[in-house]
Write a structure and sequence with these properties.
By secondary structure, this protein is α+β, with helices and mostly antiparallel strands. The chain is built from 6 helices and 24 strands. Strands 1, 2, 19, 20, 21, 22 and 23 form a 7-stranded antiparallel sheet that branches. Strands 15-14-18-4-13-17-16 form a 7-stranded antiparallel sheet. A 4-stranded antiparallel sheet has the order 5-12-10-7, with no helix packed on it. The longest helix has 31 residues.
Length: 387
């Protein structure tokens, strides 16, 4: 009987010891979490348990920057889509001056830079059924010159009329102009150069193509003046008259361009939808100083009248989880707190905050994603090795 009691007592002591060791192991793992963690557990009343602790040196390393909330002016915004177009008179179209076979002086792609006077094409007429144009022009010029010299002698002897002489003179003038135009033709054909500098908007031909006289070969855009055309939905018709400026983000970039900064202006605002589109066109003109590509589609933020005493934050300050928006408030040098907010209008750079923030709050403007990741990492529970 004593042996049984001894065995039971030993088993209970072993079980208690194992549980005690498991507890200490969890504590050690929790204490091993370093660098970023949740705040104090609140027992001392200093910080809430849901606060995030990021040491100052880590915050600087992660690029975390904060701003203090100050209510001010903010504008109404109509978000829509549209397109960037070349302004009138900002494009030139190069056409074939003769019929023939085209060869490009070099390879051109959309956006290639072109200097004024640089060679673009050669048009060869050597393979045409009528023969090489320069040869034909030289023969026509020689014949017209001979006829004019003959007419000068005959008119002196009054053998031909003044009208016949003038006809011979006109034919010579035409032949001379045609010959001078192709007199310096290269072995590859007639050379066509850029009439102005700019960028290739579209190259319509390739090596070996046959072209007719007047056929478009290339369009060159100077890209200095551009149009931004926004398409406004009919439901926003009453707001069209309040539009004063715009911001836009090209489809190929994350940059936001401000029409007012680009010395732009509102050119026209439609008063009705067209027969071919249910949208109302609103057009701005601006100077392209930032490398905006004509022809691209854009996300457009149309700016309407301003409002006072509005809290707004950089768009980069927001984080989103399942449709709920939040920002991070810095409590002090190392403590941060997640704050849910209700948003309003956005112009692509700043967004209105309707509720959740107050004047004087110090929020994370850059690096909010890093704070979010830190909050997730610090909330992972320690691994349990209880036996």
């Amino acid at each position: 009987m004593k042996s049984i009691i001894f065995l039971m007592t030993s088993a209970l002591l072993s079980f208690a010891a194992c549980g005690h060791q498991g507890h200490n192991h969890d504590s050690d793992e929790t204490q091993a979490t370093a660098g970023i963690s949740h705040g104090d557990d609140g027992k001392d009343g200093t910080h809430n348990a849901d606060e995030i602790v990021i040491p100052a040196d880590k915050a600087e390393e992660y690029g975390i920057k904060t701003v203090t909330i100050t209510p001010g002016k903010f504008h109404g915004v109509l978000k829509t889509g549209g397109k960037v177009l070349a302004a009138s008179g900002d494009e030139s179209t190069i056409v074939a001056t003769v019929a023939g076979v085209v060869s490009l002086s070099r390879r051109f792609t959309d956006g290639s830079q072109i200097a004024k006077g640089s060679p673009l094409f050669n048009i060869s007429t050597a393979s045409l059924a009528d023969g090489d144009i320069s040869t034909r022009a030289r023969i026509a010029y020689s014949n017209a010159k001979t006829e004019l010299e003959r007419a000068e002698k005959l008119i002196a002897d009054k053998i031909i009329t003044e009208k016949e002489y003038l006809a011979a003179k006109a034919e010579f003038d035409r032949a001379e102009l045609a010959y001078e135009a192709v007199a310096d033709i290269s072995p590859r054909g007639i050379k066509i150069s850029a009439p102005s500098g700019g960028f290739v908007k579209e190259c319509n031909v390739k090596d070996g193509d046959y072209v007719e006289v007047g056929q478009p070969l290339m369009t060159i855009a100077q890209n200095r003046n551009l149009y931004l055309r926004a398409e406004v939905a009919e439901r926003d018709y009453l707001s069209v008259g309040k539009i004063v400026s715009a911001k836009f983000r090209p489809s190929y970039s994350d940059n936001i361009y401000d029409i007012s900064v680009l010395d732009g202006r509102l050119v026209s605002a439609g008063t009705s939808a067209t027969a071919t589109s249910p949208f109302i066109p609103v057009t701005f003109e601006f100077i392209n100083t930032g490398g905006v590509m004509p022809g691209c589609y854009a996300e457009i933020y149309l700016i309407t009248g301003s409002r006072d005493n509005v809290i707004s934050v950089p768009v980069s300050a927001l984080v989103e989880e399942q449709g709920i928006f939040s920002v991070f408030i810095r409590e002090d040098d190392i403590h941060y707190r997640k704050q849910e907010v209700t948003t309003g209008d956005s112009d692509g750079e700043y967004i209105e905050i309707k509720s959740g923030l107050n004047a004087g709050d110090n929020i994370v403007a850059e690096g909010a994603i890093q704070v979010k990741l830190a909050s997730v990492a610090s909330s992972i529970p320690a691994h349990n090795h209880n036996h």
